[in-house]
Write a structure and sequence with these properties.
Number of helices: 11
Number of strands: 3
Strand content: 5-15%
Radius of gyration: 28 Å
Order of helices and strands: EEHEHHHHHHHHHH
Structural class: mainly alpha
Helix content: 55-70%
Length: 281
């Protein structure tokens, strides 16, 4: 029986290599898919070397999902416009090394649903954490209109512009963030080094330290005496803020308050109107 050497990605997005026996090339590919492997290269006879340690996706787990979604959409748009079947387009996109591993895992799960008879939008809808609701609805509209390729292309452009905008905002906020970090570090140095050095000077002179210094010393002594409580309180506050950020009722209340701020409300309304009209168009 012929032997085929392969390089493939498994369901976790890890690149593997090996040898499989099958009657034909098509049978070998089908056997790999049944094993949960998605072939990147398949060669009859010769063995393919295993990926070297510097080729492995060490940092794939931290890849940006937004950037990966934009890459996936652009890839699908190109393949669908080339009149490839949806399942074949998903198979090809799934083994693209530029797409983060976590996104490739989602593609694999979507491919299974498509092979079971679901539409592309239905397969995406089953993974709402990876595909936003507007994304699923736009894909569904493209399927209903028979213009899936064009719809995916326009959606890819929208995601790429959004990623570029977020990158610019992040770059603009980098300097203020560095200033905040420097300010926190300066306060920590004052509390830990400067204040304990100054207080003995007042004590030796028989003079009470100013109120500001006494207040800072009180904070430092309280934090040192009850540091487990301070750590627990900090963790509880961080967890509470994270839970609030994921709470729909809180987010609705926050957005309503933003719409009441004079200057911010105009920016929010114009931005959301632009998104709505672009999507509608």
């Amino acid at each position: 029986m012929p032997r085929f050497s392969y390089t493939a990605y498994d369901d976790r997005g890890v690149r593997t290599a090996g040898v499989i026996e099958a009657e034909t090339r098509e049978a070998a590919i089908e056997s790999l898919f049944r094993q949960g492997r998605h072939p990147l290269d398949l060669t009859e006879g010769s063995r393919v070397a295993a990926p070297r340690w510097w080729e492995r996706e060490i940092f794939a787990s931290g890849a940006s999902l937004g950037r990966g979604l934009a890459l996936l959409t652009r890839e699908l748009a190109t393949l669908v416009k080339a009149e490839l079947p949806v399942d074949e387009a998903l198979r090809i996109a799934q083994v693209q090394p530029l797409i983060p591993a976590r996104v490739r895992q989602t593609i694999g799960a979507s491919l299974e649903r498509v092979l079971e008879g679901a539409s592309l939008s239905q397969s995406f809808q089953a993974h709402m954490r990876a595909f936003p609701p507007y994304y699923v609805h736009i894909v569904r509209a493209g399927e209903a209109a028979g213009t899936l390729g064009q719809t995916l292309e326009e959606l890819a452009g929208f995601l790429e512009r959004s990623a570029e905008f977020r990158s610019r905002v992040g770059s603009a906020l980098l300097y203020p963030a560095m200033l905040m970090i420097a300010a926190v570090a300066a306060v920590a140095v004052i509390l830990a080094v400067l204040i304990p050095t100054i207080v003995p000077l007042f004590t030796d002179a028989g003079v009470a330290p100013p109120f500001a210094i006494r207040f800072l010393m009180g904070i430092e002594e309280a934090a040192a005496a009850h540091w487990p409580f301070v750590l627990a309180l900090s963790g509880a506050v961080a967890g509470g803020l994270l839970a609030l950020a994921r709470n729909d009722s809180w987010r609705l209340w926050r957005d309503r308050q933003l719409l009441r701020v004079p200057l911010v409300s105009g920016l929010v309304q114009n931005g959301q109107t632009a998104v709505m009209t672009r999507t509608l168009g």
